[in-house]
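The protein record filed here.
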Amino acid sequence: MNAPDPLQRHRAILAHFDSYSAALMFVRWEDGSLLWPAPLPEGSSLSPAAPAGAGAQAAGAEAVRAAVIAQHGFNAEELAHAADFEHWAQTADGPVRIHLLRFTTPDAPKALVEARNAGFKHMTQLRGADKNELLLLREVFNLIIGGSARD
């Protein structure tokens, strides 16, 4: 029997913030989701704190970052995990941790992301996206633009 994929219980938001222009953009994947590697299952509910039974999912940030880098060929020195963003979703199969990964380049690596059938979008371009995903992006916006995050 195969061991379960440890990343199955994780999702990541990829973002870029240009502090000079205050432009915050998010990666939207080919399937329309704002989460990597897949959207949350139907019926998921969000939580800002680890739900009961989260266990090992409380860790794993570096494994998620490494998996995104390996799958997409991003430069490891240009993608950072935002430790001050910790959100969770409760699904029928148990808790899922949501991570925020930020590109640290001066400009968003648009060509690199577009080569992966994805694109950078401003929040105003994401109308119609999944409600829970938009709520998570609002939390990222509040964290970064709201002044509680530092570059």
The two ends are 44 Å apart (CA to CA). Helices lie at 61-72, 110-114, 131-144. The mean pLDDT is 88.
